[in-house]
Design a protein that fits this description.
Length: 249
């Protein structure tokens, strides 16, 4: 009965072999060889071309309703372990035929290392996401620096404005005092000149005289005269300027 059943089942399907992430691997990088066959496989075997080396794997897991798989990992690819590989599996009560050969090639690296090879089960988008997060970090730092600089300028402007407000009233008071002192000075000059002229009389004919013109504030003269006790008009007068000739002997 067993012989009739085996004849009815027929030959086992050939397995397949593949490499993750590929068949060309940089020197020293890992690679995983994957052997696949039908459901119900007891063990997979990975063989070199000359069958001098082989490795059995009993850790077979099911991929779907009709396929199973076993993985063989090579941690560091080198010239010694590169070459041709093929798979075979055992399903009771016999071994299957061999798969096609897979040529594992090692790639020599000179100078800078090539782009990293992603391992099985790892996400290929991880480096991209890390680079994106670093770019966002740089942008955040730049925005923070600009914000702090603008805040510093605002504080300096506020302090400068406060200083101007404090100095404003004192300057205006000084200017008012100077303006009030100018008419008084002109009046004093006129009074002194008039006093000298009254005591000495008119200058003799032919004598040399120097005439100086002084611009006088008529309102200031009136105010000084009223303060001296003159009972004349105290009504406000229109502001005007008078030029007086002052003779100097």
């Amino acid at each position: 009965k067993e012989r009739k059943m085996n004849k009815w089942v027929g030959p086992l399907p050939r397995p397949s072999i593949s490499a993750e992430p590929g068949t060309v691997i940089p020197l020293g990088r890992p690679v995983t060889l994957q052997c696949r066959g039908p459901v119900g496989v007891y063990a997979f075997r990975l063989e070199r071309e000359d069958r001098s080396e082989y490795k059995d794997n009993y850790n077979v897991f099911r991929l779907g309703p009709f396929e199973s798989e076993a993985r063989f990992r090579i941690d560091s690819v080198s010239e010694a372990n590169a070459g041709l590989y093929r798979c075979i599996y055992y399903k009771t009560p016999r071994w299957s035929e061999h798969s096609d050969y897979l040529d594992l090639v090692v790639k020599e690296t000179s100078g800078d290392t090539d782009s990293p090879v992603t391992e099985p089960g790892s996400s290929a988008d991880a480096p991209a996401s890390q680079g994106l997060s670093a770019e966002h970090l740089y942008i955040l730092i730049g925005v923070s620096v600009v914000f702090l600089f603008c805040l510093l300028l605002l504080v300096l402007f506020f302090l400068h404005r406060q200083n101007q407000i404090k100095q404003g009233p004192s300057r205006s008071k000084d200017e008012k005092q100077k303006l009030q002192q100018r008419p008084d000075l002109a009046v004093d000059v006129l009074e002194r000149t008039a006093g000298k002229g009254g005591g000495g009389g008119a200058p003799a004919a032919g004598s040399s005289q120097e005439v100086t013109y002084a611009q006088l504030d008529h309102w200031a003269l009136t105010r000084r005269t009223a303060q001296a006790g003159s009972p004349q008009s105290t009504e406000p007068m229109a502001e005007s300027c008078t030029y007086a000739a002052i003779a100097r002997h």
